[in-house]
Amino acid sequence: MAAARLYQRKWVLIKLPIAVAAVAVMAWLWTAWLPLPPSEISLSAGRADGVYHAYARRYAELFAQQGITLKVLESEGSLQNLQRLRGTAQPQADLAFMQGGVGYPPAEHDGGARLLTLARVDIEPLWIFSRLAYVDSLQQLQGLRVSLGPAGSGTRQLGLALLDQVRLQPRDVNDSELAGAAAVDALRQGTLDVMLMVSAPESQVVKSLLLAPSVHLVQLRRTAAITERLPYLQTRLLAQGALDGNRLPARDATVLTSSASLVARADLHPALQRLATHVAGQVHARGGVFHHPGEFPSLKRVEFPASDEARRTLIHGLPWLEDRLPFWWAQVVTRLLVICLPVALLAYWLARMLPAYLRWLLESRVTRWYGELKYIENDLTRDHLTGLDLTKYLDRLNSIERRMEAFVTPAYLMPRWYTLRQHIDFVRMGLFRRRGR
Fold first, then answer.
1. What is the number of alpha carbons within 13 Å of residue 180 lying toward its C-beta?
2. What ranges do the domains of the chain cover?
3. What architecture does CATH give domain 34-318?
4. CA 214, 123, 162: angle at the middle one, nearest 5?
5. Per-residue pLDDT tens digits for 23-50
6. 300 burial via Cβ count (<10 Å: 0-12, 13-18, 19+)
7. Most buried of 14, 183, 222, 384 (most Cβ within 10 A)?
8. Measured between alpha carbons, how far is 69 from 61 in angstroms, rounded to an integer?
9. Phi/psi zone of residue 222: left (φ > 0), alpha (ψ -120 to 50 degrees), beta?
C-alpha cells in the first residue's frame, strides 16, 4: 500500500522534501519578491564648489552610518542630473538634487527611467548680478554680455525660459560661455555685464558678489507676470542683513525663487527611498533665509510624482524596525518575519499534517476490516444460515486475510494487526462449528 510505504519512510519521502521546498521558496521570495537593497548607490549633486555638493557629502556620511556607500557625482547642474537619473547620460545616478522648473511641464521629457520626488529640500533664489546699475528688466539684457550658466545646468534652462518670456533668444544677447568662478571674475573685471546664477543663499560666491562694490543685485520689475507664466517660480523678499545678520544684503530686495528637490529613479529600492527621505529630514530640517525650521523636507508643489514611500516616511517616520534597528539588521529581520517565518510555519504544518493524514488512512483501513469482521460476527447470531451463506462468509474472511497480507503494516499498528488476525481465526472457527452441525 502506497500510503503505508510513505508513512514508514516519512522523514525521507515527506519531511525532507517539504524542508527542501520551504528553503527553495524562501530563497526565491527573498531574491525575487523582496530582495535586499544594494549596498552602493550614487547621487548627482552639482558642482564641487556648490552648496548641494556639500549637502551631498553630508548625505554620504549619514548613509555610511547605515552601512550604505553613497557615491557623490559632480555635475554641471540639474539638466545633467536629470539625464543621469533617466539613464541617458553617464555615469548614471540613483538620486539627484533637482532645481525647480527642470521637470516643467511634466509631459515634456526625453524618455528614460521614470522619476519620483522624495522631498523638496530648499528654496533657491535666482541671483542676477550686473555691473550696470540701471538693469531692472529682462528686456534690457538685449545686446549685453550675459552668462546664462553652464550647459547642462538648471540655471541655463531657467535663463532661457526667462528670455523667452520677453521674446528674446540667446542670439539677442552676447551669450558668454563663462560660468562659475570664471564668470564671477569676469563680472568683477568688467568683461561680463550680467550673470545669472541659481544658488542657495549660503553660497560664498553669492556673498562675495554682494560685497563687491562694482556689482549690483538686479531686482526685476513686473515679476508677477513671470511667476504667472512660470508657476515653479515665486517672488520672495530678501530682507536686509538676512544673509549674515548684519549687512548682506545692504537693503531689502525682491528675488525670484524656485525650489530644490531630491529626486530618485522609480526603481530605487523602497527601503533606500525611505532612508534617503529620512536623511533629507536630518540635513534640511533647519530653517533658512526663505523658510522656517521644519518646513522642509516636504512634498508640496512637486514637479515629478511623489514617492509613496517618501510620503509615508514624512508623515509617519520610518517603519518600527528601521527606526529601532540598524538599517541592514532591519532589512534582514523584516525578511525573516515576512518571508521565512510564514513559509517555515506552513512547512511545519504540512510536515505534521501529511503524516497524520497518512496515519489516519492506515488506521481507517484496519478499522474497516474490523467493521467487516463485526458484520460477519453479527450475521452468525442468526438461527437460519444455509451452507451457501457460510461459504460466502468464509470467502469474505479469506479476502480480508489476503488484503492484510498485502498491507505494509507500520510498527505501531502491528498489535492491532495481530489482534485482528486472532479475531478472524476466532470467527472462522465459529463458522466451521456452524457448518459441522
1. 13
2. 2-14+356-435, 34-318
3. 3-Layer(aba) Sandwich (3.40)
4. 60
5. 999 999 999 999 999 999 999 988 887 7
6. exposed
7. 183
8. 9
9. left
